[in-house]
Design brief:
Order of helices and strands: EHEHHEHEHEEEHEHEHEHEEHHH
Helix content: 40-55%
CATH architecture of the largest domain: 3-Layer(aba) Sandwich
Strand content: 15-25%
Number of helices: 12
CATH topology of the largest domain: Isopropylmalate Dehydrogenase
Number of strands: 12
Oligomer: single chain
CATH superfamily of the largest domain: Isopropylmalate Dehydrogenase
Shape: globular
Length: 353
């Protein structure tokens, strides 16, 4: 197979972790007879420094011409002044809109070797295997905003169509897994959530009668994710709630650095990135966890390129090296020698080969 992949390293630890992921993609291409063209492009704060725009037109063109986009992380103190008119996050929101990727999939599973990396009791983590489906291009992040000297507003808006399409993505996933979907909202307070709940109920009754549906308020969901996480199968929610809850859910696995994500639309092209941020406090030290980015490559191969066996090979390789104790500082036990970013990436390559 021939495929073009845009690589946006971004800021902070982004370039470090994407560098390891790129090596994995090249190894997969070599081992399985594929031809991947990997085009790197500036994005985020680095692009602001270079071109004054977090998403330069040349970078956007490369993404639109690609079969898939691999992203590291963006942002940092340098670009986060309260009065800044141009921010890295503006580029990310625009990129999601331009690519039409409205469904963000974030799988969370607890590796048996890493139960101690979480602050929760091991018996609570036993059997945790869930997927969050976060609506990605609507809601308060994209709504109209106003600001005066004395007040500010952010409009949260959702249409029936936006809710229908994200619920269908989540329901299809649930049907392929354990057949349970929880829809998370705040319908006791918000009108957008009442629309969300009514639309979700209708879609599930009419189109997915075989999938069990549960509605849950977002504050209850935050509690139950910690209290009984293994009861979750697939969870679907709106943009801001999903942003917050998936970071909470990542702590079940022990570290933000472990978890991948896929942002998908109606076509094959997707945006793939680890769920962690740019971690400027450890940037350049060679200790960032590359596993989330490498596992994002597995999602890229599966969802955008249809290379299911190759995706499984990456996941098996990461599983093997974690089981063997190749752990970066964020997940290594106290007193255990931690692996560097490059050592972790090299271990995955060795396991693949």
């Amino acid at each position: 197979m021939k495929a073009r992949i845009a690589v946006l390293g971004g800021d902070g630890i982004g370039p470090e972790v994407t560098s390891e992921a790129v090596q994995v993609l090249r190894a997969i291409a070599s081992l399985h007879g594929h031809e991947f063209t990997l085009q790197e492009a500036p994005f985020g704060g680095a692009a602001i420094d270079l071109a004054g725009d977090p998403l330069p037109e040349s970078t956007l063109a490369a993404c639109l011409a690609a079969d898939a986009v691999l992203l590291g992380a963006i942002g940092g103190p340098k670009w986060s002044a309260p009065n800044a008119k141009v921010r890295p996050e503006q580029g990310l929101l625009r990129l999601r809109k331009e690519l039409g990727v409205y469904a963000n999939l974030r799988p969370v599973a607890v590796h048996p070797a890493l139960r101690a990396a979480s602050t929760l009791k091991p018996e609570v983590l036993e059997g945790v295997d869930l997927i969050f489906v976060r609506e990605l291009t609507g809601g308060i992040y994209f709504g109209a905003k106003t600001r005066t000297a004395t007040e500010a507003t952010d409009l949260c808006s959702y249409s029936v169509m936006e809710v229908e399409r994200i619920v269908r993505v989540a329901a299809k996933l649930a049907a392929s897994r354990r057949g349970r979907l929880v829809s998370i909202d705040k319908s006791n307070v918000l009108e957008t959530s009442r629309l969300w709940r009514e639309t979700t109920t209708r879609v599930m009754q009419q189109e997915f009668p075989g999938v069990a549906l549960e509605h849950m308020l977002v504050d209850s969901a935050a509690m139950h994710l910690i209290r009984r996480p293994r009861d979750f199968d697939v969870a679907v929610t709106e943009n801001m709630f999903g942003d917050i809850l998936t970071d909470e859910a990542s702590m079940l696995a022990g570290s933000l650095g472990l978890l991948p994500s896929a942002s998908l639309g109606d076509g094959k092209r997707g945006l793939y990135e680890p769920i962690h941020g740019s971690a400027p406090d450890i940037a350049g030290r060679g200790i960032a966890n590359p596993y989330g980015t490498i596992l994002s490559c597995a999602l890229l191969l599966r969802h955008s390129l249809g290379l299911v066996e190759e995706a499984a090979a990456i996941e098996a390789a990461v599983n093997a090296v974690v089981s063997a104790g190749v752990l970066t500082p964020d997940i290594a036990a106290s007193g255990q020698k931690a692996a560097s970013t490059r050592e972790a990436g090299a271990a995955v390559l060795a396991a693949l080969r």
